[in-house]
Amino acid sequence: MSRGDKGNDRRGQGDSRSIGIMMSAAVVLGIVIIAMAVQLVRLNRQGKQDKTQLKTEASVDQKEKNKKAEKPLETKTPPEEKASVEHIRKDLDPDKPMVALTFDDGPYDRVTNRIVRVLAKNDSRATFFVVGNRVERYADTMKNAFQKGNQIATHTFDHGDLSKMKKKQMRRELKRAFRVMKKINGENPTMLRPPYGNVNDKMRQTIQIPMIYWSVDTEDWASRNKAKILKRCKSIKDGDIVLMHDLYPSTAAAVEKLVPKLCKKGFQLVTVEELFYYKGIDAKGGKVYFSGR
Ligand code: NI
After folding, report:
1. I need a surface site. Which of 36, 104, 123, 243 has the fewest CB within 10 A?
2. Out of 104, 105, 220, 240, which one is annotated catalytic?
3. Known catalytic residue: 87?
């Protein structure tokens, strides 16, 4: 080994030391850059969250303001008058005969929509006693019937026989039916048609809304025949409540004939609510009603 070699060696050692320092500096710099990038991303994300939070808070504030703005209008109208504006037509003739067509077991788009269409075309209305477990599936159909002024009442949630239930079960069944209807119509039903037409004392004590029977039974579910249904409607007179089911195309076909026919005969086709209003019947919870007479 010569001096020069040693010098070279030393220089070589010096070079490798400085390379080592530079490399570790680069590593530190790299770490610093990565750390800064991570911090930047985190800040950016937080900023976005804050923004969305602010947005939702702002929209909640706006909703609160809207609510407040609406309130004075609500308080101006007494509750019973507000309900009657929405549900009871005031331009009906109390001296002309009235009939309430009622439809159980729906909604069912293919049948209900046909019935609603012919009713609207003839300035007529009816009452639909819907089964709660069908309501979400046919929500649009029910909402359409409701918005056209028809009365949407309940036929329980599962079409269970209330007369065979304990009070607690009965309440649960109705609570479920009310909840699903309110979600779509924005209000609770005010009348019930008991499934199978069964009523007992336990029901009278427990059920808080009037129970609606019928005075004309078309037996449409049994015949499923348009002509037979129409034949059973020949006896319709002032104040009748007519039982049908919006499940069968034959029922829709019969109603398409029946509605214009009854109008021509001078009948006003009304909801059960309207019938009771015009006939001066103050329907009470837990009581059973057969007609508007
Ligand atoms: Ni039924």
Report:
1. 36
2. 104
3. no
